[in-house]
Amino acid sequence: MFKLWPFNGGVHLPTHRQESSTAPLSIAPLPQKLIYPLARRNGRNAKSLVVPGERVLKGQVIIPADGTMNPPVHAASSGWVSGIEQRLLPHPSGFSGSCVVIDGDGMDEAVAFQGVSNYAAMESDDLRGKIHAAGIVGLGGAGFPTAIKINPPRQFNVEILVLNGAECEPYISCDDSLLRHYAHEVLGGALIFMHILRVARCLLAVEEDMPEAIAALELAKAEAGYGHIEIVAIPAIYPTGGEKQLIKVLTGREVPADGIPAQVGVVCHNVATAAAVHKAITAGEPLISRIVTVTGQGVRKPQNLLTRIGTPISELVEQCGGYTDSAQRLIMGGPMMGFALASDDVPISKSTNCILVAGQAEVVGEKTPMPCIRCGACATVCPVNLLPQQLYWYSRASNLERVMDYRLPDCIECGCCDVVCPSHIPLVQYFRAAKSKMAEKEKERLKADHARMRYEARVARKAQEQLEKAESARRKKELLATALSTSKS
Ligand code: SF4
Ligand code: SF4
After folding, report:
1. How is domain 18-28+117-291 classified at the CATH fold level?
2. Which residue of 411, 420, 425 sits with most ligand 2 atoms within 8 Å of its CB, as the best mutation to test the pocket?
3. Measured on CA atoms in the order 268, 65, 100, 279, is the torsion positive or negative?
4. Of 41, 19, 410, which Cα lies nearest the Cα of 242?
5. 412 lines ligand 2 (CB under 6 A)
6. What is the per-residue pLDDT across 420-474, written as a single tens digit (0 to 9) for each?
């Protein structure tokens, strides 16, 4: 029996997984349009490698890499670049940004993909390079570049690979679908990670209410003889799938609040990332598709679809039979940590795991908020051991010093406190707003620091110039005096 270590807090939520997971996995038709934002993680825009009127092939790099933090972006199908246009971005800000737009030509003509026949003979750095060049980022939602995550700082002794198949947020079933249909690829990806990281142990966590996924994994493990990968069924408590919570549950180790898993000897990846790595290394195919759950009362046929990245949401919803009359809100991600979209003309990004078309009954946080009654329920469920009611007071008052005292940056925005609050206070909204203000203040501080440093450098340069001028004048005077005294004598 595998020993599990419970984490504090968390809530039991209805999974709503069966709405989408009972339908078979569909392959979305070739998109008519593909949209790729040029915005980078650092907020700057990349320069497109393609121009309007140009034909592109599936797998062609259209947006170049910029350091390891910004892997390249590849076209997910063949077609013609119709423009570089301002489009709504798949981002909580609701901002628009410059995007490469491709009209699909229905041919799906690809560049030549070249896989590796024996990755075990390759050096870790070379494999990391291939993963970066394939544009792979974490597919669990955060979208952090995978090549960086599998290159932990050397001072930490990593000994366990954790694969996260704990799909704990309600409605989302893309990982369940992936594990049922692509278990061999996930396990194959785990072996590649283990080779790169030089670790001997892999724990693959799946929620106990995903019996078909567990059976598929056990079967694939037995068929391939991967006895050293342990499939672990974990309790279905939200947010067990949070990286730090999962590591605690599986190993009993606590990742420091502002630390990384490698500090406790663990590297953690989502199961879909493992499958993408397997495809990139063995078949040479970059990250151009992923499984997306389209679900909720607002869509006629909820299901999971193998989707080309860049496909507009409108095309996916159409594939699911269109909207129902009860459709109220479009959410990218799940109901707890997702964000609302103003339009369905937004593309699926690499980190889009779910499109929730919420009906009226599914919209979270619609009840009228009432005053806090200091019941403490929010603190009981916080998986990070914060005091949400205190954070609420100070976030509401925009007291950014006090929210720091109460560790606002540690909040993972899981929404557990929102769910249990009897006063229906949208706590996470306040926390997000306070975090944005903190980020803004930090940006201002950096700008001010930069301006101050520039001013100080200018003053120092001027002072140096004055000194040099004075020194030069003194030397001239000396030379003149020497010349005068020589001529007199
Ligand atoms: S759960 Fe709501 S009402 Fe209770 S202490 Fe927290 S914020 Fe206040
Ligand atoms: S949203 Fe933040 S404060 Fe609320 S329970 Fe989650 S981690 Fe704790």
Report:
1. Rossmann fold (3.40.50)
2. 411
3. negative
4. 410
5. yes
6. 999 999 999 999 999 989 988 888 888 888 888 888 888 889 989 999 999 999 9
